[in-house]
C-alpha cells in the first residue's frame, strides 16, 4: 500500500510539475507576441506624503492583458521575461511609457515623481545609461522627477558595477530607490557608498506593525538609519490607519498602499489627482 501511495504522490507531483512547465512555456511563447500586440499597460499607484497627506509621486506597475488568460500581474511573467532576456525589450517599453506619461504631467504642471521598476538584467545591461539618457532628453524630463527602483538583493548582486552605475545616474540627476528594503542584506557601508535617493521598506515589515513589536522595532530602526543617512523613505503596502499612524508618528516620509489606492489605469489615476485638487482648492 505504502508503495502504491508513494507512486501516486510521485505521479501527482510529476503531473503538477509538467503542468507548471507547460504553463511557463506558454507564457514565454505569448510574451514574444505581447509587445507587438500592445498587450501591456502601465498602472500607477500613488505615493503619499504622510505629513501633508498629498500625492507626491506614482509607481508604474506593469499589467498584461493576455488575450486568453485575462489580466496578468508581474508575478506571473516577470521572472520568465528575465530568464529569456525578453525583459530588455519589455523594460525599454516600460521606461519609455513612464517617461511619456511623466512628460504629460510636466506639461500640465502636475508635480509628481515617477517611480519605475527595473530588473537586475535591465539595470546591469550595458545599454541602461544610454537608454535613460535618451528618454530623459527626448521627453524633456526633469531628471529628479524620475526614480528607478531596484530590489536590494539585485542591487547588491554586483556591488562594483552597481556603484559605478549609481554614480552615473546620480550625475545625470535621475534618482535611485532600493526596493523591498530589509529583505536583502545591504550594510551601512554600502548604503553610504551608493548615491541612493530613496529606500522603500518592504511590505512584510509594514504588514506586521500592529501585531509584532519586533516589526515595529525594525521599522523604527530603518527610519532612524534613513534619517541618519539623509535618504528619503517610503513604506510599502500600507493597508490600515493603524499602520499609517505608527509610520507618521515615527517620522516616516512617504507611504504607498491599498489604504490610499491600488495601482490603477492612467485615466483613473488622473481622476484621483483631480479629486485631490478639488479637496484642496
Ligand atoms: P514592487 O515594486 O515592490 O511593487 C509593489 C507591489 O505591491 C505591487 O505588486 C503592488 O500592486 C503591491 N501593493 C501595493 N500596495 C499594496 C498593499 O497595500 N497591499 C498588498 N498586498 N500589495 C500592495 P505588483 O504590481 O503585482 O508587482 C509585483 C512586483 O513586480 C513589483 O514589486 C516589482 O518588483 C515587479 N514589477 C512590477 N512592474 C514592473 C515593471 O514594469 N518592470 C519590472 N522589472 N518589474 C516590475
Ligand atoms: Mg517597486
Ligand atoms: Mg517593493
Ligand atoms: Mg517587490
Describe this structure as you would to a colleague.
This is cyclic-guanylate-specific phosphodiesterase. Residues 24-277 form the EAL domain. This protein is of the alpha/beta class and 281 residues long. The protein is 52% helix and 19% strand. It is built from twelve helices and nine strands. An eight-stranded mixed beta barrel has the order 1-2-4-5-6-7-8-9, surrounded by four helices. Helix 8 links the parallel strand 6 (175-181) and strand 7 (198-201). Helix 3 (87-107) runs parallel beside helix 5. It is globular and about 65 Å long. The model has no long low-confidence stretch (mean pLDDT 92). The site of one magnesium ion has 4 residues, from strand 6.
* Structural shape: globular
Oligomer category: single chain
Bound heterogens, unique: ligand C2E, magnesium ion
How large, in whole angstroms, is the Cα Rg?
A: 21 Å
The proportion of residues forming helix, as a percent range, comes to 40-55%
Strand order of the largest sheet: 1-2-4-5-6-7-8-9
Domain EAL: 24-277
Protein name: cyclic-guanylate-specific phosphodiesterase
Amino acid at each position: 500500500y505504502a508503495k502504491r501511495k508513494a507512486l501516486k504522490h510521485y505521479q501527482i507531483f510529476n503531473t503538477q510539475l509538467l503542468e507548471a512547465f507547460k504553463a511557463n512555456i506558454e507564457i514565454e511563447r505569448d510574451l514574444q507576441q505581447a509587445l507587438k500586440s500592445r498587450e501591456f499597460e502601465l498602472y500607477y499607484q500613488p505615493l503619499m506624503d504622510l505629513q501633508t497627506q498629498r500625492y507626491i509621486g506614482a509607481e508604474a506597475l506593469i499589467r498584461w492583458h493576455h488575450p486568453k488568460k485575462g489580466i496578468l500581474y508581474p508575478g506571473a511573467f516577470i521572472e520568465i521575461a528575465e530568464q529569456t532576456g525578453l525583459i530588455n525589450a519589455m523594460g525599454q517599453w516600460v521606461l519609455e511609457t513612464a517617461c511619456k506619461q511623466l512628460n504629460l504631467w510636466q506639461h500640465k504642471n502636475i508635480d509628481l515623481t515617477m517611480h519605475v521598476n527595473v530588473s537586475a538584467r535591465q539595470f546591469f545591461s550595458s545599454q541602461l545609461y544610454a537608454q535613460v539618457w535618451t528618454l530623459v532628453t527626448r521627453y524633456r524630463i526633469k531628471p529628479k522627477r524620475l526614480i528607478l527602483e531596484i530590489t536590494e538583493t539585485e542591487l547588491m548582486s554586483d556591488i562594483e558595477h552597481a556603484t559605478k552605475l549609481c554614480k552615473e545616474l546620480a550625475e545625470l540627476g535621475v534618482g535611485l530607490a532600493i526596493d523591498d528594503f530589509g529583505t536583502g542584506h545591504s550594510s551601512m557601508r554600502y548604503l553610504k557608498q551608493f548615491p541612493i535617493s530613496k529606500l522603500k521598506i518592504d511590505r512584510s515589515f509594514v504588514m506586521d506593525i500592529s501585531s509584532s513589536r519586533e516589526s515595529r522595532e525594525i521599522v523604527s530602526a530603518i527610519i532612524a538609519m534613513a534619517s541618519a543617512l539623509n535618504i528619503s523613505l517610503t513604506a510599502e503596502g500600507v493597508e490600515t490607519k493603524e499602520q499609517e499612524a505608527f509610520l507618521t508618528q515615527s517620522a516616516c516620509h512617504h507611504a504607498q498602499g491599498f489604504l490610499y489606492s491600488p495601482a490603477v489605469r492612467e485615466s483613473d489615476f488622473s481622476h484621483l489627482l483631480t479629486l485631490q485638487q478639488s479637496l484642496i482648492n
